[in-house]
Design brief:
This protein is of the alpha+beta class. The chain is built from 10 helices and 17 strands. Helix 1 packs parallel to helix 4.
Amino acid sequence: MMKQAITRPFPHHLLYRPTSSIYFSKSNRPIHRSPSPSQSPSDTHLPFFQNQQTPHHRFASRRPFSSSNDPHPPNAIPVVSTVNSPFESFSSIDAGSLIRRPISLWPGMYHSPVTNALWEARSRIFEKPQGIPGDAVLESELVPKTPSQSRTSIIYNFSSDYILREQYKNPWNEIRIGKLLEDLDALAGTISFKHCSNNEGAMRPVLLVTASVDRMMIKKSIRVDTDLKIVGAVTWVGRSSMEIRLEVIQPIEEASDSSDSLALTANFTFVARDSKTGKSAPINQISPETDQEKLLWKEADDRNQTRKKKRGENKKDMDDKEAGRLKALLAEGRVFCDMPALADRDSILIRDTRFDSSFICQPQQRNIHGRIFGGFLMRKALELACSTTYAFAGAAPLFLEVDHVDFLKPVDVGNFLRLKSCVLYTELETPNRPLINVEVVAHVTSPEIRSSEVSNTFYFTFTARPEAMKNGLKIRNVVPATEEEARRVLERMEAENPELVQNRD
């Protein structure tokens, strides 16, 4: 006898198809907007809904930096989910319709929703105006620009976009900091392109790359169920470098002061290189207008002078005081190595906290210059550091800050990248809020020629969650076993908190 077929609902997860930034009309049919030849090159906005009277997907309009309390400025770039919701009707979507652009403009589809929106906006900057030859923008035509001309904001509608919220949620129902760092780098890149283009939208053939990122500290927890805004602008320019300041803002209804909404501040430094020679290339200078813009320029200039001073300092020989610090740090570690049965059970060697991750850099992770996104590297490093902290503490970690990052060597498609992490030291002076300092070193490895070079070194700071500490969680002390490890610990302590080094003498 033939058995009757059992019918079951078609699983929703099979309906999920990754797409580019797709906007839906009221009928749930996708709308793709291609640039019209008649549009002005400065009209750098994203696709908008049909029958919409005023396009609102433009770069943010000029206004004092972060002065607006409106969480949804009318000219901000919206971030939309890039997959169909299981609660919406499904229709076939041409996944390539939004990426039919030159390959240099759409290098890969790994991007997050915000990078999808930024790629679309950035591609409009790269489209040459009609009648302007490719070599028309010369060095002599460089013109000063104001911070407001590069100011850009991004809106995350977490409160209303279920799919977007799901893409940014971590296992503890909070925002994924790694994805946020990736988005910050992408936004900083878009801002740098806006500043370096001329008033007609044309741009000289230069490479703009992330050179460094200053320390970023979380000022308040960032929720994944509340709308979020990132706003940024160029605040300082040298001959071939620029600093971009970004602010992550999440408004609080009961907050009367706008500063209470500021969750994170980041300063990215980008440098311009000639695309043919690889040498430094001059860029548009900046003309601050408001008092706040002039103050930000002064702060950025001071940071630049400090960086130059540090680079010019020669490494001094170890004095007697530093030798004493090394000896004290190594004392407990040598007990672990020589007499492990007598070692302090509340301590652990640095080498016993290590984790690593290896992968081959894929074409989908490259930027418009064919190299791997700096934001992608930061995200991978932070996620490894988070896992290292989780395994070390025995409880879910809470991210606090990322220290200054220098991008020493570019990472190319096809490179074999190794990330090595460890807990470098802990600060246990405040029992209910211990600090766990994690180091992640990125090595660019070339097996064919048997070489390995350091491309980046990242330093992250975590703590344990308050509920875990209330339940009796105890964080262990971390000690070095070699002189090289002890030197790294002292260098980080001196950079992070010089008083901590003095207290341990």
